[in-house]
Structures are given as structure tokens and as C-alpha cells.
């Protein structure tokens, strides 16, 4: 069954693979924005960093759909992209479990001068961006934080792309994916 799915997905048209991959960031980012804007959960700095691989994935998928001659190179960059996504979310989970210390981007470091008036202090506080601690887990599904869900999702997609790449290199035509480049 998996063999049939991979043949239909890859060998008939490599563009189908990139179309499927273009859907992944749309669904993933839609969920993240739903949680943020509809449910009102403010993301921390690392949460916003975890979105960047999905923006990059969408761009790479569009390139793969448009320019099939670069599909093998794009595929490898996408695999690297998922590995980076898994590293960021794994690091975020480690911060949540206090395995790692928070980076400075997750903390507000404001030094107030004693010479400031009350109005000047209020004005300074209004200009400081809201930074949420990366240790705080405000939203869970099945007792998993979004960092854990993103880690598992990234690993699953990484494995999927690796399997597709191996399958494609094994069965595809030599002019698109030579043995030396796979």
C-alpha cells in the first residue's frame, strides 16, 4: 500500500509531492494563528521562531512546483528545514522542562534609571514589547505543549521526506535524480 501511495505521489509527478508539502505550512500556520488570535494565547519568542521553517517550506514548495529541474536540491533543503524545525522545537521543549536556560530573547531586560519621572517610566514601559517567558505553557492538547506537537510533527515530516527521497532515488528516472546526488 505504501509502495502504491509513493508511486502515485512521486513517480507520476514530482510536483504532487511539492503540492502536498505546500499544504503542510498552510495547515500548521493556520492552527498556530488560530490559537494565537482566536483563542487569545500570546506566543513566546521561540514560538514565533518555530513558524519560520514553515514560511520557508511554503516558499520552497512553490519553487518545487514551478521548477521541477531543481526538485532534488529543494528536497534536500526541505529535509534540512524539517531538521532545523525539530531542533528549535526540541530546544523549546527543553526550556519548558527547565533542561536548558531561557535565551535572552525570552526575557525582558529593562534597566530603569532612577532619574526618570513617573511619566517617563510609564512612557518607557509602553514602548517595551510584550515578551512572554518561554518556560510558560499556556496551551496544551492531550497534555502536550505546542512545542512538543511541533517537534513530533517536524520529526514525522522529516522521516516522510527522507523516505520519499530514498524511494525517488531508487525508482525515479536517472536524468532527474542520479545515484550520486541521492
From TrEMBL:
Provide this UniProt record's keywords sorted from A to Z.
Membrane, Transmembrane, Transmembrane helix
Name of a matching Pfam family: DsbB
> What parts of the sequence cross the membrane?
17-40, 52-70, 77-95, 151-169
Q: Which InterPro entries match?
A: DiS_bond_form_DsbB/BdbC, DsbB-like_sf, Uncharacterised_DsbB
The highest taxon in the source lineage is: Bacteria
GO cellular component terms, alphabetically, are:
membrane
Q: Could you confirm whether the keyword Transmembrane appears in this record? A: yes
One GO MF term on file is: protein-disulfide reductase activity
Specify the protein's topology with respect to the membrane. Answer: Multi-pass membrane protein
What biological-process GO terms show up in the record? protein folding
Protein localization: Membrane
KW DNA repair (keyword) present: no
Q: By what name is this protein known?
A: Disulfide bond formation protein
Q: Which organism is it from?
A: Orientia tsutsugamushi (strain Boryong) (Rickettsia tsutsugamushi)
State the gene name recorded for this protein.
dsbB
Amino acid at each position: 500500500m505504501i509502495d502504491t501511495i509513493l508511486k502515485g505521489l512521486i513517480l507520476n509527478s514530482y510536483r504532487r509531492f511539492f503540492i502536498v508539502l505546500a499544504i503542510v505550512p498552510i495547515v500548521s500556520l493556520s492552527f498556530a494563528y488560530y490559537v494565537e488570535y482566536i483563542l487569545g494565547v500570546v506566543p513566546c519568542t521561540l514560538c514565533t521562531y518555530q513558524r519560520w521553517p514553515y514560511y520557508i517550506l511554503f516558499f520552497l514548495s512553490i519553487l518545487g512546483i514551478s521548477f521541477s529541474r531543481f526538485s532534488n536540491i529543494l528536497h534536500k533543503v526541505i529535509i534540512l528545514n524539517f531538521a532545523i524545525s525539530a531542533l528549535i522545537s526540541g530546544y523549546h521543549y527543553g526550556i519548558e522542562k527547565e533542561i536548558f536556560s531561557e535565551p535572552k530573547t525570552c526575557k525582558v531586560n529593562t534597566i530603569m534609571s532612577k532619574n526618570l519621572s513617573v511619566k517617563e517610566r510609564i512612557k518607557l514601559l509602553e514602548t517595551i514589547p510584550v515578551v512572554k517567558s518561554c518556560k510558560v505553557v499556556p496551551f496544551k492538547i492531550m497534555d502536550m505543549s505546542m512545542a512538543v506537537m511541533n517537534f513530533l510533527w517536524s520529526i514525522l515530516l522529516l522521516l516522510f521526506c527522507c523516505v520519499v527521497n530514498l524511494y525517488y532515488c531508487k525508482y525515479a528516472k536517472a536524468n532527474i535524480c542520479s545515484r550520486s546526488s541521492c
